[in-house]
Amino acid sequence: MPRRILGIDPGLTRCGLGIVDAHGRQRVEFVHVSVVTSAPGDELQRRLRLLADGIEAVLDEFKPDAIALERVFAQQNLPSVMGVAQISGVILVAAERRGIAAVLHTPSEVKAAVTGYGSAEKKQVGTMVQRILRLDDIPKPADAADALALAICSAWKSPLDALKPAGGQTPAQRAVASAGRPADAPTTAQSAWLAAERAAKSRGRRVR
User: What is the four-CA torsion angle of 31, 48, 87, 157, rounded to 10 degrees?
Assistant: First the structure.
């Protein structure tokens, strides 16, 4: 039975919601994508309530088994970080009330899982999400693609031995290969990521 994962790209103005069904680590299937929004001019309480209503509606309709949420980092834009932290708290409370496991992923972790490169640009992430999920177009806005990338990352999150099994392919390589790319043609970014994973494993830790 597939494991349903809801990826959430948190934000006070736009909050991306992307759902995939993970069939082991062999395949991820697109289920849903949407973006809930709030107006910057509204009071904070109203904005949080509107976003919470939209998120909870998706939780109740699609009943995910897990939530993948982007980890908040302190950055120069403090108001933006505060907004992300506030809506992240709302999401974690909603998950706890429903008994849904929530996992936090760093942006570089998500990029590396989906594209093979931890510093990939948003366009690269969107393109890979489109290919992996066999979508007609890149999900827009970027918050939608990022949410699906979070869900894919959570589905594929594993040590190097699981990322590169006996067949010698990462999940991203298998997905791209099945979409028409030769299986033995990893990108430069994917090769760099695998090298970083091997180095991290030799030091007894994971790449973040």
Answer: -10
3-state SS class at 56: helix
Is the pTM value of this prediction over 0.70?
Answer: yes
The DSSP string of 135-147 is -SS--SSHHHHHH
Residue 70 known to be catalytic: yes
Of the listed 42, 56, 60, 70, which one is catalytic? 70
- 3-class secondary-structure state, position 190: helix
β strands within 48-134, DSSP E: 66-70, 101-105
Beta strand segments in 11-155, E: 14-23, 27-37, 66-70, 101-105
Of 21, 109, 143, 146, the catalytic one is 143
42-72 pLDDT, tens digit per residue, is: 999 999 999 999 999 999 999 999 999 998 7
**Is 65 tagged catalytic?**
no
Candidates 116, 125, 133; CA nearest to 185 is: 116
Predicted confidence (pLDDT) per residue in 173-183, tens digit: 555 554 444 43
Whether 9 is catalytic is yes
126 near 139, Cβ under 8 Å?
Answer: yes
| CA–CA dist 98, 51 (Å, integer) | 17
Which two structure tokens, joined as six digits, stand for 52? 């919470």
